[in-house]
């Protein structure tokens, strides 16, 4: 299991606005700013996102490398996938696959894909077998 991920972006203010809107339907609503001066020399300023007491997705300003990163965010159901996709598109994302089953993986794999403002590939994913219904 991963603890955290840093994503380098061109404009942190723009990216904070984008991710605040795009991740809200997934329940990723906690925000934290970390001043790099509090860390070791050269530590970047960070803009963090999280949920349930954890900050796990961080943005830092710098040179982007969109071909190097794909981020999949967990959704608890298909509705959350649909809502995250719609929110991301409203926030300025580009389409990379409308919500639907990804049969090439599994018939129960439901996802949507977008490119963020820096061109990073994001996926909102509901895997039914990982979220059994009561």
UniProtKB/TrEMBL annotation:
Residues 1-127 form the VOC domain. CDD domains: VOC_like. It holds the Pfam family Glyoxalase. InterPro entries: Glyas_Bleomycin-R_OHBP_Dase (IPR029068), Glyas_Fos-R_dOase_dom (IPR004360), VOC_core (IPR037523). PANTHER family: GLYOXALASE FAMILY PROTEIN (AFU_ORTHOLOGUE AFUA_5G14830) (PTHR35006:SF2). This is VOC family protein.
């Amino acid at each position: 299991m991963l603890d955290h991920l840093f994503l380098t972006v061109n404009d942190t203010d723009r990216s904070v606005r984008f991710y605040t809107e795009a991740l809200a339907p997934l329940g990723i609503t906690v925000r934290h700013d970390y001043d790099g001066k509090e860390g070791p020399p050269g530590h970047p300023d960070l803009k963090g996102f999280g949920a349930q007491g954890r900050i796990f997705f961080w943005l830092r300003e710098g040179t982007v490398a969109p071909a190097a990163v794909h981020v999949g965010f967990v959704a608890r159901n298909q509705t959350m996938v649909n809502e995250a996709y719609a929110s991301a598109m409203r926030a300025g994302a580009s389409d990379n696959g409308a919500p639907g089953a990804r049969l090439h993986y599994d018939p129960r794999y439901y996802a949507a894909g977008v490119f963020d403002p820096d061109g990073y590939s994001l996926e909102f994913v509901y895997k039914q077998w990982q979220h059994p219904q009561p």
